[in-house]
Amino acid sequence: MKKLFITAAIVAASAGLMNAQTVQKQVVEEGGTGPFKSEVVGDASCPGFTVYRPQNLQEVVAKKGTLPVIVYANGACFNHNVEMRLLLSEVASYGYVAAAIGPYDEADVMAQWRGVLKAAYPETKGEVVMANGEKILPLTPEERQAREAEQAKQREEAAKKARKAKKQQTEAPRFQTYPKMLLEVLDWLTEQNATSGSEYYHCLDLDRVAAMGQSCGGAQVLGIAYDPRIKTCVMLNTGIGDMEMMGATKESLKNLHQPMFYMIGGPADIAYANAQKDYERIADCIPVVMLNSKDGHSGTYYEKHGGNYAKAVVKWLDWQLKGQVGQSALFLDDEYLKMKFPEWQGVRKNF
Predict the structure, then answer these.
(1) Which long-range contacts link 326-332 to residues 24+ away (Cβ below 8 Å)?
(2) pLDDT in tens, the chain (351 residues)
(3) φ/ψ of residue 32, rounded to 5
(4) pTM of whole model > 0.85?
(5) Cα 201 to Cα 15, 193, 195, 196, 294, distances in angstroms
(6) Which of 92, 104, 138, 163 has the most CB atoms around its CB within 10 Å?
(7) What does the radius of gyration of the chain's CA atoms come to, in whole angstroms?
């Protein structure tokens, strides 16, 4: 039933069967720190996605003009975006409309992150504190042994199911999402922007669109980056390297036509080596910046308002999509980077 529901949502989105209609809504961390308090929205006409946007959207647009758009793909290519809720809400509060893969969900963000951080504690970071003030400690040897035993059991069960499925000549899909969903939701936003009576009517600037993804979601971004509507890509803890994922390979880098921003968690990040390869392989005509922190693969998404990663993302988008040249200092000025984030390292080329 869930698969049918998601399929129906995608069909409805691409076919434009109804105007945008908010049916679910929540405010995260008091709407962010930006000038436009944000909200998280579930829409009846696009139930396979979640929208992050400023509250009182039409009023904001009337005062400030149409807003840039972000399409977002999740880590692990999951069909939910809860883990990135703090960051996406924060970005939206600076005047962006972000459509993220995955249906609206009010799951506890901290509960989602607790297990993730326990499993991949960034040893390069002295202390891990979540947005609710909870401190996460690394697994004890006993906890790690128990986890490894449970994971071994799960792998064995998965192998049994795979063997059974092979005998039945059927195979369950590895992922619930795919790259083209980013373009499908962009099509939906485009249609809603042009449809009188829609909540998004004449609210969106579709000449200013960013594609953003974390981890596996970055592969999905590479899979659709050829689209001329995508004006910049934000690659979070991700890199394709020599892998093939979601149909993307190192050959996908040849399709890039827009400035690229890689935000990586340093050598402790499992995406680090792949991201370095991407950086070297991206053509000399494509501007690219890579920043590396010591936060590992989990970044700072679990910190208040998405932590420093959210700050970097906002600065990049303000520069690339809003033309705020002053925000470029973080990416072009080594002294400024050292002053703002002394533990970060940055490289750039083709500027």
Answers:
(1) 330/291, 331/261, 331/289, 331/291, 332/289
(2) 444 344 444 444 444 447 988 999 999 999 999 999 999 999 999 999 999 999 999 999 999 999 999 999 999 999 999 999 999 999 999 999 999 999 999 999 999 999 889 888 888 887 899 999 999 988 888 988 888 898 889 889 888 887 877 766 554 445 689 999 999 999 999 999 999 999 999 999 999 999 999 999 999 999 999 999 999 999 999 999 999 999 999 999 999 999 999 999 999 999 999 999 999 999 999 999 999 999 999 999 999 999 999 999 999 999 999 999 999 999 999 999 999 999 999 999 999
(3) 85, 180
(4) yes
(5) 17, 4, 6, 6, 42
(6) 92
(7) 20
The amino acid at residue 177 is T
Beta pairing partners, 39? 53
Exposure class string for 6-15: b at 16+ Cβ within 10 A, else e: beebbebbbe
Residue carrying structure tokens 């795919």: 178
Return the DSSP state at 46.
-
For residue 71, list its beta bridge partners: 99, 211
- Three-state secondary structure call for residue 322: helix
Measured from the Cβ of residue 217, the count of other Cβ atoms closer than 10 Å reads 30
Neighbours of 262 (CB within 10 A): 24
Instruction: Categorise residue 107: left if φ over 0, alpha if ψ from -120 to 50, beta otherwise.
Output: beta
Q: For the chain, how are helix, strand and coil distributed in percent, rounded to 5?
A: 45, 20, 35
Q: Classify strands 67-73 and 204-214 as parallel, antiparallel or unpaired.
A: parallel
Q: How far is CA 176 from CA 3, 6, 71, 164, 304, in A?
A: 8, 9, 17, 21, 29
Cα distances from 6 to residues 10, 81, 118, 272, in angstroms, run 6, 15, 31, 33
CA distance 240 to 273: 9
Nearest of 256, 299, 301 to residue 279 by alpha carbon: 256
